[in-house]
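hey m, so remember when u said the tokens were messed up on ur end? i reran from scratch. heres the input so u can diff it against urs
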Amino acid sequence: MNYQEALDYLANLARFGFNFGLGRIQELLKRLGNPHLELKVIHIGGTNGKGSTTAMLSAILREGGYRVGTFTSPHLHSYTERYQINGTEISEERVAGLIGELRPHLEAMVVEGFEHPTEFEVGTALAMLYFNREKVDFLVVEVGLGGAIDSTNVVQPLLSIITNVSMDHMDYLGHNIKEIARVKAGIIKPGAPVITAAGGEALEVIEDVCRDNNSRLYAVGREISWEPVSWDLSGQSLILRGRRRVYQDLFLPLLGRHQLINAATAVAAAEVLMDLGVSLDGGAVRRGLARTRWPGRLEIMRREPLVIIDGAHNYEGARCLRRALEEYFPGRSMVLVIGMLGDKERAKVTAELAAAARAVVVTRPNNPRAGNWRELAGEARRHASEVYLLEDNGEAVCKALSLAGPGEMICITGSLYMVGVARELLLV
């Protein structure tokens, strides 16, 4: 099996869709010798900021001298992005080899009467097998969807992180904040400490689950605080007051005030790891944040015209994006390119972003969950008089480039599946 054959095989597994539960992944991992149980895992869930927090914490650990694996999803350009060790992606050959190794186990499960594992479950098993064999010191795992029902929840983490909780994936997770928080709090394990930046009703739920599991909770904004110092298009500086020390003049190359909360969350996690005996110091924290890279999040792709991409795929993400655009580019006219999946709060996201745009280009994310993507154009017309509908992502980006006048900016946002295509085009 070569790499393309492996990708085709994985793509074919998408027919199993979302089929939640841990039985299939547990059975598959058991056949592989339970490699996940030998790994030192930091498990990161939440609605927004999971990937950014993963990138920051992994960079801090790497700067502490550790060999750090990361398992994230989805990817922007290449499937290999999902599996990295100290910032280096898994090779295509290794992916092909591991899929070829997993396939007989999958077929045997079906023969023996088990349900076939889903695409993401197979990817999770691949991750656990790969990082176990590579003997990483730590594995930072981003939850795929939810928490309790996600295949990554087979891990036994050193600590769990819940970045925040807002309305997203309501068809799967629940129809109010408390229900969604309960699902996300499913990654909390007995005795393992928990860090969260959630507030309000979500924090109350997380506190309850922590009490039930005898898990120490650290709340960002309560035990850990921060304040911005300065910001420009190169990044931002902050002061962070942790439990162990005050970190003066930290620099973070990621843009947007919301990233400061993610930075505080990552540093809080680093300090809890110190409590657990992991050798880290303030220098590793400082260097790790300064060297964090996380493409596709408020990323400036071009300066003339100014082109920004961001994976704001839900309402809270859209709010953060609009606030950042207003702070960094006050009064600048905008052409918006947007494509969203069908299971998102399309109307609310569009209302937040289209209202700030002179023109809107609606496109279709390359994903089966795109649904009736054209409905988004109707929502956009409620807020913008100039709306275009182009299914092809490349054509949508080219249209925006043609529309942008002198001094205007282009913002490309929504599903990461669409943002990744746009980014690849803009890198040429």
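this time it looks ok to me. The longest strand covers residues 225-232. if urs says something different then somethings off w ur setup not the seq
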